[in-house]
Specification:
single chain; mainly alpha; 21 helices; about 5% strand
Amino acid sequence: MKTRKILLICLISLFTISCEKGLDLQSKDVITDAVYFKTVEDFKLYLNQFYPELPSFNADDDMSDITKPSGFNSVSNSSYVPSPGDGTWDFSYRMIRYANYALESANKASDDIKSGIKVYEAEAKFFRAFHYFNLLKRFGGVPLIDKTLTLNDTEYLYGPRATREAIADFIVKDLDEAITDLPLESDISAGDKGRVSKGAAQAFKARVCLFEGTWRKYHGLSDADKFISAAVDASKAVIDSEEYKLFDRRDVLGDLSYKYYFTLSTLKSNPAGLTKADQSETILANRYDQDIRESPRYEHSHELCPTKKLADMYLDKNGVPITHASSVFKGYNMVLDEYQDRDPRMDIFFVKPFERFWLFSQPVYNVNWDDPESTGIIYNVDFGFWTQTGYRNLKGVSEISFPMGMDWPVIRYTEVLLIYAEALHEKNGKITDDELKISINKLRDRVSMVHLTNAHVSKYGLDMLTEIRRERTIELSLEGYRLDDLRRWKTAEVELKEPLRGVKFQGTEYETNPLWENVKYDYDSEGCILLEASSKRNFEQKHYLFPLPTRQILLNPALEQNPGWK
């Protein structure tokens, strides 16, 4: 009996082993390395995950000095303290891991798809550079991770931060390699429009190099010229490619091309009925579609208002600062005075008191393209409801309801032109009128604004670099650039200590008109609304870099905290 049992067990074991040899052990409901990354399409689909994670709506300048958010922003007034975690740190390293995984998988791909996946290797390098730049801007040097880590990678897990120089060079190297294998915008098929192009990588390289070059120049670090020259070359390469151009349809939109560029959809979103297909200013966007992926709600109200500082940056119609003795600025006595005879871009995006405007969020206020005056709402400067500061901005706000498919421009040609002008001046200490003609004056032409020239600067005793920086602030306002600009120019220690102010109220029509008789604010010595006093804004040298998340330092004592932080 015992012998029979042993024989039976042996037979069952042999049968089991025989069956296992014929089994397909690949999972049927989970994608694994063994079955994925076998085709070019696999790599393409994998890289798709990076695109919805690009910056999107509400990438505003609420952390700077040109807008007033709801409440008080701890970055704007420098009241923040180190914390255990940091969203930028966690998100960036997660995306870097995904990019590293794609590149490692590409290295192991079969020879028959090697050539076909080069473009997706290039995309992975672009996105890795994109997220390392977010870390560089915020923290300076950070751990340099160029592989997918395991628990055995102790030299990475417990290693020190790479230097700022190493991270910057790594980003540029990734972008240079990506530029080689990415297609021109004009060579991307209709079905793949929106993917990273050669121009996107060149434009992003220009952004990186301008930031790093000017940071080095004004923070007393080496190799500033190397990066600034690279910014000139990269931005000029985009210009010379003629792949992109400003959305300038003055033939049908007058000076409002600049306004309606931000709200283009596939529906009628402007008086001329132009759609996203009618523009080539966007170089890279977080893309939306009214049927597949609707645009997020985006509306400026009392929660995000321009400050008086931004309003005063707009020149008069003759291109002269409003504080200049030769300016035709009309002052502040009547509430409409400060909007008169100004740079048209102020008129385009600032809602003037008693002016009609349209809101997408309330269909009753949507524009009627056939009879606009029959709809909309009048801006009565309702403090506390429409505005905190007295100013209201409509940049990027649609005038029709959902569903909408407006894209958020992550990189647009406007920025390339601004980078080119600024980098040239930083490199050479000057800029020629011909160089201004193909850069900043293209932007001014779009809104019929007088040109910036060397003769103009000389005539009015202006400073060319100041005017170039003003142009950048005006054109890119509320798109999330301002804080980074102040930090790289090393002017944050002055600019961010200044009070946040609203309109001039005392001694003006605001004070005497019964419409605003119940408005109560604190005011400064000039009679302007005082929203946050300079005594509550304290930018120190340590604030040029953010503190590393304290949990990371506890996990890895080799990481050193940024100077001034504990």
